[in-house]
Amino acid sequence: MSEIKHVLGISGGKDSAALAIYMSKKHPDVNVEYYTCDTGKELNETYDLINKLNSVLGKNIRLYKSIDEDNSPYKNPFDHFLAMYGGYLPSATARWCTGKMKLEPFENEIGDTPTISYVGIRGDENREGYISKRENIQSIFPFRKNIWSEDVIKKFLANTNLEFIIAKYTELNPVNLKLILDYVAQPISIRFTQKQKLNALLDADTKLFNRVVFEWLKTTDYPVGKLDSFSLIDNDENLGIDDIFKILDESGVGIPAYYLPLDYEIEIDGELKKGTYSRSRSGCFFCFFQQKIEWVWLLEQHPKLYEAAIVYEKDGYSWMEEPLENLMKPERVIAIKKEHYLRMHKNKINAKTATSWQDEILEAEGEGCASCFI
Length: 374
What we know:
With 374 residues, the protein is of the alpha/beta class. The protein is built from 17 helices and seven strands.
């Protein structure tokens, strides 16, 4: 395994932090290099988390740099690239921040080395995450029942690969071989999609499926196929958000402070109501994917950072459709809190069940930059 590089990016968020702990405990045989890409605009809570992880992991988290500070007139990567882009703020349609400060330093550090990148996407998420286009970098998802990336699954389950799959399953001869071969023999079509076939084989025997994929990878140039053994093929867990918080809590690292719900009060129909808000993701304090209630959280919990975010809004550029100077007006703060309270308590009103703060985080994760907050 020494010829293959194993890396895991620490974003400062819950999932990547939990994955680092998970890998160090469950797969100590894998020599993982933990790294982070600092934008220079993170919350202090992010740096606190990384310091705690350094201690728990027993090794330092490396910094993959996106700029050479000695040759830049700016003190941090974000301001350096903002100047390069002429003051044009990043947005959902122009995510230069991710490319320049996260992905490029990662791929530059890796170079041509065959590399396995471990990604903290959970089993309760419906997204793939960042997949490098470089053939020497392969992504693995330890928290999911399906640890393989979409490109691997597509090639492995291709109708042209049926003969190989049938031969390998027959060679391994599981007790439910007939059932498995019935699934394998069905070609992918509109009536039996790739996803249906994948789920059927995973449900039949996840570890066996992984073993067959591993044998197929040995016939390819994928980095995992270059290994003599790979302990993650014995994974059959499917971890959700509650599992992630449990890993963090039991490790002593704890849940990043910005995820913890804080109380706010709002008057609705003459009655004082109590809601909670928090931040749903790691990343820059002015992340444009924040919901408005998260901007209110930043305004009230980190007013100096909110003021710093306002400074960047000039020459017609703003973090969202509503300028921050307008959002901070008392009447807007009240309106945002009211809308947020009603939305978070709609289940309680309609079905007598309250929405938990974990559910709120899950809802907010619907949009965002995967490489920033995994």
